[in-house]
Amino acid sequence: MNLRGIQESVGSRMTRRGFVQVGYSGLLGMSLPGLLAARAGAAGLAGTGTTGKAKSVIVILLSGGLGQHDSFDMKPEAPDTIRGEFKPIQTAVPGVHFCEHLPRLAARADQLAVVRSMSHPEGNHLVAVHRVLTGHPSNPRGASDLDRVASRDDFPCYGAVLNHLRSRNDGVPNGVSLPLRLVEGPLTWPGQDGGFLGPRNDPWQLRLDPNRPEVRDDSLTLPEGLDSQRLHLRRHLLGQTSVSGPNDPFLDQQDAALAMLCNGKVGTALDLDREDPRLADRYGKHVFGRSLLIARRLVEIGVPVIQATMGIVQTWDTHVSNFPRLKDELLPALDRAVSALLDDLKLRGLLDETLVVMLGEFGRTPRVHELTPGAVPGRDHWPAVFPAVFAGAGVVGGQMIGRSDKIGAYAVTKTFGPPDLAATVYKALGVDPATELRDRLGRPLQLCSGDVIDPLYSAVDV
Question: CATH says 54-216+265-458 is which class?
Answer without folding.
Answer: alpha beta
